Amino acid sequence: MLKASPATSNCQAIFGRREHVLLGVSPFNGRFCDAYIARLVAWAHASAEDFDVLLPGVEQASWILEAVGESRPQAKARKEVARRRRAVEAALEAYAPERRVAVHDFGDFADNPHYLGLRDEVDRAFATDEGFRRACLAMSRQAVGSRLRTVRGPDARVDDHQAAAAVRYVLDELPYVLDGATVLGIEETLMVYHRPWPLWDRIAQGEFPLKVSPRQGFLVLHDC
User: Fold this and answer.
1) Which is catalytic among the residues 9, 26, 47, 213?
2) CATH of domain 2-223
3) What's the pTM value of the predicted model, to 2 decimals?
């Protein structure tokens, strides 16, 4: 069973209305095996009137592999993203066949004016705010570390160069957690992930020169 933990009181209010959730799926995180993706889709089907799924694009996924130093990063990223997409589609067919659920990747909104505006705000904050830059690099370190430990063993450590090489992945994802509702063209949504996003929490608390839309929330799913 999965238990939902909204990050703030506003997130709780959004979740209480049960209008929409956005399921974040990561291609290089072992948590997102086929069985867990099926549980995630089943939970969303039972918990919200509508939901979509968000995957990174092949380009963004390849940045993780490049940072780790893997060969043929584009080909491997394409394979892994496609594998997760197939798992999502199989879960949708099994648990929500009557739903019309969109499976997006980051590139689907590359020309979306609101996404581009948010992405510009993220870039400015990264360039001008040292604390925000360090927080983004910490998130990048976490993302790279998951893949690095898979290929080099549990004691592998991410260095500063690797974190910097992949930080674009974090920057490209941020607009979806700042105001994914407007990007998607819906009234409100919650980004759903399997663990907290400390960076989102710090933005929501007003620590950095970015704002989370009141129409946007974050929700963590825990095993219970």
Assistant:
1) 26
2) 3.40.50.11710
3) 0.94
